[in-house]
Amino acid sequence: MKKNILVVDDSALMRRIICDIINSDEQFQATEICHDGLEAYELLQKKSFDAVILDVNMPRMDGLELLERLRQEQIEATVVMVSSLTVDGASVTLRAMELGAVDFVKKPENLIEAKGSRFHDKLLMILNSVVFSKGKKKEITASQQVLTTARIKRTPQRSRVLTHGANRLIALACSTGGPKSLQSVLPLLKANLDAPMVLVQHMPAGFTKSLAERLNELSEITVKEAQEGDVLKKGTVYIAPGGKHLEVLADLNGVHRLHLNDSEPVGGLKPCANITFQSLIQSKFDEIVCVVLTGMGADGTKGITELAEKKPVYVIAQDEESSVVYGMPRAIAEAGMVDEVVPLEQVARAINNKVGVK
Question: What is the pTM of this model?
Answer without folding.
Answer: 0.87
